[in-house]
Write a structure and sequence with these properties.
Layout: H1 6-15, E1 22-24, E2 28-29, E3 52-55, H2 56-66, E4 71-74, H3 81-87, E5 93-96, H4 100-114, E6 118-122, H5 126-129, H6 132-140, E7 145-151, H7 167-170, E8 177-180, H8 187-199, E9 206-211, H9 212-216, E10 218-221, H10 240-252, E11 256-260, H11 262-266, H12 270-280, E12 284-286, E13 301-303, H13 311-319, E14 322-326, H14 332-335, E15 346-351, E16 365-368, H15 371-387, H16 395-407, H17 422-433, E17 438-441, H18 445-453, E18 462-463, H19 474-484, E19 490-495, H20 496-502, H21 505-512, E20 517-522, H22 527-536, H23 556-562, E21 566-570, H24 576-584, E22 591-596
Parallel strand pairs: 4-5, 4-6, 6-7, 7-9, 8-9, 11-12, 11-14, 12-13, 14-15, 15-16, 17-18, 17-19, 19-20, 20-22, 21-22
Antiparallel strand pairs: 1-2, 3-10
């Protein structure tokens, strides 16, 4: 392993997946900034530190302070231990997690909730490899985190020394960039570059691996450093010709749809999105990663598209004659069988990452640029089109879509056996807690129900693992969100399977004074896997019964109390409101509610994996009835 050269940095920049630097729009990303020679941005309230003679570890901690880092999630170990000594006296708060995976997801939750770069730290070998899953998760969802890992001393690298792992090589495919620091004097520059790369362009995880002897070596700390990132110049402003062509298509299309992805949130472009939608009258669909970017209650919002999207959203995309994709990537969960997706639609695809454009679906009008700039310039161009009298009446299109919304609204059936409905629990949770809270979901049925039955009216109030689908994400991500936004109510909606993967971080929450609230949707099974076994494997339930119903192992109420939390249990609909209210009344400790729900509830609508969106099912055995001229 050698120090990255300018050529490898340039290569990384070419393969880097890049969106926007945190600034505004509910404390989130404004336009990304990346000059030809990027400068270390000044951090409000942080003075430029004076030069000092320190160790490499001291230089690391001072760099974090200068970058405005307020929280680091981590666990000490042999190779990273030198860094923990100066951290003892630092203004940076260290939150001692119980597992490195928890540190990584907490950094992600912090970043998603605050718009700032999340930071996690681990030692070499198994400590570093335990970060691989949350790093991959952050990469798939374009979340800005910096992972700092200790490494064995430089003379031992490549010798299979105790707790050695080539974490730089391991994480190469799942980081925006990574560094192996070779000299102590490089630390300020590398840290500044890592934060710049993580937060600008399309955000993503950056790993900084530091050998133990580099942390121990004497050095002179100076700030600010000069960044050296040849070839890294994200395109922020779109090409005017492409914008004008997109506006022309938007002004003449009869069945247009705005297909909104998480890039709009990353760019802090939600206010502009609303202006564009209302200016044009075009229907809006928001992906799982974009919930809250456009208010769920807005009359132009069709809902979420894709595998478990609304009938109207799926139909809208399938029948569109124009799709304007903003910060979305045409992933398989949205498109279904790709060659049958939206067959009659022209595509305008705007993304800051040129690698996404045309990757899955041909773009008739490709637009490379930051979503906020793209939307602002589209508003101006569409306004010009309308001033010239070019505007199509969308009344017929809306008549079709409104008819579908009325005939196929999101809903659910009460369990026939009288058990508690998980959809009812989640719906009441959203209604009682309200739109100002942050909701964090695990992965599975409860994730889909949380996306469907809670109304997201504001941006940055919905956090989940979308691209990687990481079970165990919810509890540590909620911890990170609450640590970053201590005055905001944070609820994690988790499944009994997901919860058992990372619930140890509740001990961290209890000891660190992070009063998150956890709603465990306990159906006794790996619910989404069981649903697929019901539908596609002849009801052969192989290894999906968790025993949390049959044997009450573990007893989540007792487990919560053992982890320093308040434990509550709810088993019937009459007690749901009272139990949620009891949890809301507690603000000085974490709370866990064991909602014991029926095991047979399913997520509908559904497009089976690998099939066309034309084959969407509204409920089991119920195919939506469209006009014969439609799908």
């Amino acid at each position: 392993m050698t120090r990255p050269t300018p050529e490898t940095l340039a290569h990384s920049a070419r393969r880097a997946r890049t969106v926007a630097e945190p600034a505004s729009d509910a404390e989130h990303a404004g336009a990304a900034r990346a000059a030809a020679t990027p400068a270390v941005p000044a951090v409000p309230g942080v003075r430029t530190p004076a030069p000092a003679q320190v160790s490499g570890a001291g230089s690391l901690v001072r760099s974090l302070e200068a970058l405005g880092v307020d929280i680091v999630f981590g666990i000490p170990g042999g190779a990273i231990l030198p860094a923990y000594d100066p951290l003892y006296d630092s203004t940076v708060r260290h939150i001692l997690v119980r597992h490195e995976q928890g540190a990584g997801h907490a950094a992600t939750g912090y970043a998603q909730a605050t718009g700032r770069v999340g930071v996690c730290m681990a030692t070499s070998g198994p400590g570093a490899t335990n970060l691989v899953t949350p790093i991959a998760d952050a990469y798939m969802d374009s979340v800005p985190i910096v992972a700092i890992t200790g490494q064995v001393a430089r003379p031992s690298i490549g010798t299979d020394a105790f707790q050695e792992a080539d974490i730089q090589g391991i994480t190469l495919p799942i980081t925006k960039h990574n560094f192996l620091v070779q000299e102590a004097e490089e630390i300020p520059r590398v840290l500044a570059e890592a934060f710049h790369l993580a937060a600008t362009g399309r955000p993503g995880p950056v790993l900084v691996d530091i050998p133990k002897d580099v942390l121990q070596a004497p050095t002179t700390f100076t700030w600010p450093p000069t960044l050296d990132l040849p070839g890294y110049r994200p395109t922020l402003h779109p090409h005017g010709k492409q914008i004008r062509e997109a506006a022309r298509l938007m002004a003449t299309a009869r069945r247009p749809v705005l297909y909104v992805g998480g890039g709009v949130l990353k760019a802090g472009a939600t206010e502009g999105l609303r202006r564009l939608a209302e200016l044009t009258g075009i229907p809006v669909v928001t992906t799982l990663m974009a919930l809250g970017a456009f208010p769920d209650s807005h009359p132009q919002h069709l809902g979420m598209p894709g595998m478990h999207g609304t009938v109207s959203a799926v139909y809208g995309l399938q029948k569109a004659d124009l799709i304007v994709a903003l910060g979305a990537r045409f992933d398989d969960r949205v498109t279904g069988k790709l060659d049958s997706f939206a067959p009659d639609a022209a595509v305008v695809h705007a993304d800051i990452d040129p690698a996404e454009i045309g990757k899955n679906r041909h773009a008739d009008v490709p637009i490379v640029g930051d979503a906020r700039h793209v939307i602002d310039e589209l508003i101006a161009a569409v306004t010009n089109e309308q001033a010239a009298g070019r505007r199509v009446d969308l009344a017929d299109w809306w008549t079709q879509l409104d008819d579908l919304r009325n005939r196929y609204p999101l809903g659910y059936e009460e369990p026939a056996d009288g058990t508690l409905s998980p959809q009812y629990v989640i719906k009441r949770l959203g209604e009682l807690v309200g739109p100002d809270a942050i909701y964090v979901a695990g992965v599975g049925q409860h994730q889909m129900w949380a996306s469907q039955f809670i109304s997201y009216e504001k941006p940055y109030t919905w956090l989940n693992s979308g691209g990687l689908g990481t079970m165990g994400y919810a509890v540590p991500a909620a911890m990170g969100a609450k640590a970053g936004k201590p005055d905001t109510v944070v609820w994690a909606i988790d499944g009994d399977g997901c919860f058992q993967m990372t619930n140890q971080e509740l001990a961290t929450c209890a000891l660190e004074g992070i009063p998150v609230k956890i709603a465990v949707i306990n159906n006794g099974n790996l619910g989404m896997v069981r649903q697929w076994q019901t539908l596609f494997y002849g009801e052969r339930y192989s290894n999906t019964d968790l025993g949390t119903h049959k044997h009450r192992i573990p007893d989540f109420l007792k487990l919560a109390e053992a982890l320093g939390c308040v434990g509550l249990r709810c088993e019937n609909a009459e007690d749901v409101d009272r139990t949620i209210a009891a949890a809301m009344a507690i603000d000085d400790a974490p709370v866990v509610i064991d909602f014991v729900v029926g095991k047979d509830a399913m997520v509908w609508p559904m497009v089976a994996a690998g099939t066309s969106n034309d084959e969407i099912m509204f409920a089991r055995g119920v195919r939506p009835a469209f006009d014969e001229d439609d799908i």
